[in-house]
Amino acid sequence: MTTLSAGAVRRAARLPRSWLFGGVVAVWVLLWIPLHGQDTLALSTSELTSLHERLNDLRDAINNTRGSSPVFSAFFDVIREAVDALTVFLQSLISQPAYGRPVPLIGWLGVVVVATLAAYAAGNLRVAVLTAAGFTSFGLLGYWQQSMDTLALTVAAVLICLVIGIPLGIWAGLSDRLHRVLTPVLDFMQTMPTFVYLAPLTLFFLIGPASGVIATLIYAMPPVIRITAHGIRTVAFSSVEAGTSLGATKWQLLRTVRVPLAKRTIVLGVNQTVMCALSMVTIAALIDAPGLGQVVLRALQTLDVGTAFRAGLAIVIMAIVLDRVTTAARDRVEARYRLGPKARGRRRIVLAGLGVAAAVALYLSYTYVWAAFFPGPAGTGVVGGQVAAGVTDASDWVQLHLGAVTDAIRNAISYGLLNPLQALIAQSPWYLVSAVVLALAWIVAGPRIVPTVAVCLGLLVATGLWQEAMVTLAATLVATVIVMALGIAVGVWMGRSDRADALIRPTLDAAQVMPAFVYLVPFLGLFGASRFTAIVAAVVFAAPVAIKLVADGVRGVPATVVEAATSSGSSAWQVVTKVQLPLARQSVTLAANQGLIYVLSMVVVGGLVGAGALGYLVVAGFSQSDLYGKGLAAGVAVVLLGVLLDRTTQAAARRMDAGTRRGRDQ
Amino acid sequence: MNKTGKLIAVVTVGTLALTACGSKIESSGSSGEPSKAACGTVNIAVNPWVGYQADAAVIAYLATKELGCTVTKKNLTEEVSWQGFGTGAVDVVLENWGHPDLKKTYIEQQKVAVEYGLTGNKGIIGWYVPPWLAQEYPDITDWNNLNKYADRFKTSESGGKGQLLLGDPSFVTNDEALVKNLKLDFKVVYAGSEAALIQAFRTAEQQKQWMIGYFYEPQWFLSEVKLVHVNLPPYTAGCDADPAKVACDYAPFDLDKIVSKKFADSGSPAAALIKNFQWTNEHQNAVALDIAVNKLSDDDAAKKWVEANSDVWKAWIKS
Q1: Which structural domain, as residue segments, surrounds residue B43?
Q2: A207 and B76 in contact by Cβ < 8 A?
Q3: Which residues in chain B are contacts of A615 at CB distance < 8 A?
Q4: What residues in B contact A63, CB-CB < 8 Å?
Q5: Alpha-carbon span B287 to B282, nearest angstrom
Q6: Per DSSP, what are the bridge partners of residue B216?
Q7: Cα nearest neighbour of A104 on chain B
């Protein structure tokens, strides 16, 4: 009886929630009319607040003491030397001339065969073939050495991530306290724009491979820690209890129950860390990290879309190979126990054969020129030249012929949606926006979120960049709306059709790992230097995640439910809107959350193509010493926006989820 | 023998047969020429624009081929390059655009870097319009007429005013102050990168769009689209002293070279080469064009220029 009435009250309360939401917005607009333009906390681009100046001074102080302070030699230099040693060793194996030889120890043939062997050992025959084809394509594109440099750096960064991240993740899985301390640190590492710490890194770790690797691992380490902790936490309580009742010690429990059962999840963490590491290739190149990123940056200077794409394609191929291999490795963790003795025997024979082939290939590529240097014309490779020329032509054609259409699209979105929204958010007094944000957060996510939101808003004011943050927020919201529209439309399509899924998924993978720097130039040609170009770039990067999550959610709706709806005469549209989407609601909210965060991670890239605001300030801070402190503050503001939006959407999703579960229980 | 076994056998035999032909890798060993030891390693920072790349290409080519030095090029932004003077990672910055703040920190305060003479290149900064616009509206190159056309320069980004587009944030600009002090009905919009700025000018010329923006010479793009300089009130010494009150055109830059103190004192023949290095905008443009448009590698572009201009560079290495 009591639960029933509580449910009724809640249902009654849910209806007005959207009313309340609308009401708050209406009041906001009404108040905006007399108040707009007041207390917007605007700051011109070259102006600094005392906080920004203090941050500059701090940077100078560190810069000046670098030579004399023993902290540097004792601490940072030791780390740098160790990381350098590891990276240089990997490079001398596969990419750079070493030990008095004009070539690395292992030539292309050796690398291809060993990589294939590794892929087979970790995964299966399919990914082994994919690996062989993928690695060969690096050479065909004409970027063998650059690809190997990128691979060496990525492997170095990932190895360090795993050595530190997996133990830390396991610990965080066992200790609530560590988990609580670690979470904000990881948030910071993932959302702080890399540009902010790129220049200081070279101060601490000098210009060289170490800085590139460390920049990469700061961004790439959080996923493996988070996902490992999650894996350990979600090991079924009954399994742990069974272990305890058998008298296992804590350590035995960890070794024989928790870690083996969480293994599949941990490998997923490894996979995500690899992907994140690869996404840093271009940015690390800004501080001279060798490899494909260098090619992309250099091509950007001459607006050479074809060459940038060629290098970007090599990065995409590397990412897809590494993704598929680690995913296959994850599935093997389970499949291994199910293999019959016959299959296991066959596997062993193939492994032995590949092992012999690898030994031969290693010898050949160590000894003979043809197996060391990838054959084909220097510079362009066998197919690289054609690929670049084709892409350049296509990009030129599109820019020349679609210019009028794309201008119209940009103007429609900018004048119709972005400008009004930006006027409302960035031209309102800061206290009004703060009050509205607090009220809206309370309405969608409940009262417990209010303190977090209030702290974030307060700190945003303290950065001195309130108005810039609001301009960025407006563009972020518009981009997220587009991301979700695409996410639902394409995601539902993919979720309902296997053919569509198979067709679209590789494109999504490519869009996620293709460095933004590659497609910025054609986008600039189409949409000009504008906030809309930044939004498009963010959508390209963020939509794949949202689409995949929605598709998985729709796919997860039990087939029986869909069948029942269809047989009772529902149209396809009704099945989607009344059955599949509502039941996949949790995935849709997760998609919205991830879409937002991914859009925010493109703020800095947006700054490079005309979005201005926080993104521009971060870039400016990286390239002008006077603006360093302001750029750092802008980076912090991006983090604050990220935390605010992430916590609110997560709490809203949890609340919604709890609501539906309770509703179902009755 | 099963299928896989057979395959392996075939592959093995095949590869063994291949070893019979093909040349072996020779160790390069440590028998380098003695001059290499005398010159040692030179770390050249390469800042991210093509003109600089051209400087670095030629210097690296001469230092390697003529002096037997080992040259390491490091692709860095300006700020990070200067930091490298302090940490010892960078010996040379070949084309410096002003940067009084960095000079203060690293030359005056930390004393890790020294000025090493002019490159001979003249840097011109200013406001530019695409050539079609200057042709059809010749009076647009006078700043007094800009307000007349302000409406035509409107975009979705400029909030109802004309748009003045800026590029890479690493350049010091006075444009916000200029717009204010010259009472122009324009808004400064930050494109955020050189690529965005160049692409904007390229599109504007192709599609006859209205556009005005910040640009500079020497720049390879000017050989593709000959942008036209807009005349602001002429620069006079000291007219830019107070950044908030600037109402005149940018000062012409004499681009200069900076090297680390350590490198300057090393007595390396490469240091003498860099000290003597001086050429014209035409020289740089020729090499930059080969790199940017003709897609030559740095080394090939440098080789081409060096072979055609021996009278110029011979003077740099006669010490």
Answers
A1: 38-122+254-317
A2: yes
A3: 192
A4: 83, 86, 105, 110
A5: 9
A6: B125
A7: B25
Tokens 């503001």 label which residue? A637
* Residue B186: strand pairing partners: B162
Output the six-digit token pair for B153.
């320069």
- Residue A18 tokens read as 């959207």
| Nearest by CB: B4 against A297, A350, A524 | A350
- Contact call for residues A526 and A406 (beta carbons, < 8 A): yes
What one-letter code names the amino acid at A657?
A: D
Cα distances (angstroms) measured from residue B317 to each of A471, A497, B66, B273, B274: 55, 70, 8, 5, 9
What residue in B sits closest to A198 (Cα-Cα)? B80
- Structural domain containing residue A183: 88-94+145-305
Counts of helices then strands in chain B (DSSP H, E) = 14, 9
ipTM of the complex: 0.83
Q: Is residue A371 assigned to a domain?
A: no
The total of structural domains in chain B comes to: 2
Q: Is residue B136 part of a domain?
A: yes
Q: How confident is the model over A113-167, as pLDDT tens digits?
A: 999 999 998 888 899 999 999 999 998 888 988 999 999 999 999 999 999 999 9
Residue in chain A nearest B26 by alpha carbon: A101
- The three state secondary structure string of A591-644 is HHHHHHHHHHCCHHHHHCCCCCHHHHHHHHHHHCHHHHHHHHHHHHHHHHHHHH
Does the residue A25 lie in any domain? no
For helices B281-292 and B50-65, angle between their N-to-C axes, nearest 10 degrees: 100
**Reported pTM:** 0.86
Residue in B168, B190, B195 closest to A521 by CB: B195
| Phi and psi, residue A455, nearest 5° | -60, -45
Last residue of a domain, one of A284, A305, A326: A305
For residues A272 and A403, membership in a common domain is answered with no
Which of A272, A305, A338 terminates a domain? The answer is A305
CATH number, residue B134:
3.40.190.100
The CA distance from B275 to the nearest CA of chain A, in Å, is: 24
Q: Per the CB < 8 Å rule, is B206 touching A400?
A: yes
Best B1, B30, B83, B154 residue to mutate vs chain A (most A CBs within 10 Å) = B83
How far is residue B53's CA from residue B46's CA, in Å, rounded to a whole number?
6
Contact call for residues A613 and A630 (beta carbons, < 8 A): no
CB B46 within 8 A of CB B76: yes
DSSP result, A276-289: HHHHTHHHHTTBT-
User: Contact at 8 Å (CB) between B230 and B128?
Assistant: yes
Picking from B12, B27, B84, the nearest residue to A100 by CB comes out as B27
Whether residue A619 contacts residue A550, with contact meaning beta carbons closer than 8 Å, is answered with no
Give the C-alpha distances (Å, rounded to integers) separating A181 from A187, A348, A411. Answer: 11, 46, 46
Q: Do residues B223 and B175 lie in contact, with contact meaning Cβ atoms separated by under 8 Å? A: no
In a domain, B32, yes or no: no
**Three-class HEC string of A123-153:** CCHHHHHHHHHHHHHHHHCCCHHHHHHHHHH
CB B296 within 8 A of CB B304: yes
Sign of torsion over alpha carbons A334, A340, A341, A346? negative
Three-class SS state of B257: strand
Residues A398, A269 share a domain: no
- B24: pLDDT confidence band, cut at 50, 70 and 90? confident
CA angle B124–B290–A528, rounded 5-degree value: 60
Per-residue pLDDT at A16 exceeds 80: no
* Gap between the Cα atoms of A516 and A499, Å rounded: 28
pLDDT tens digits, A312-353: 999 999 999 998 898 888 777 666 666 677 777 888 888 888
Mean pLDDT for all residues in chain A: 85
Residues B290, B274: one domain?
yes
Yes or no, beta carbons of B80 and A414 under 8 Å apart: no
CA distances A658 to A581, A586, B121, B281, Å, are 17, 10, 68, 69
Token digits for A66?
């670098």
What's the residue count for chain A? 666
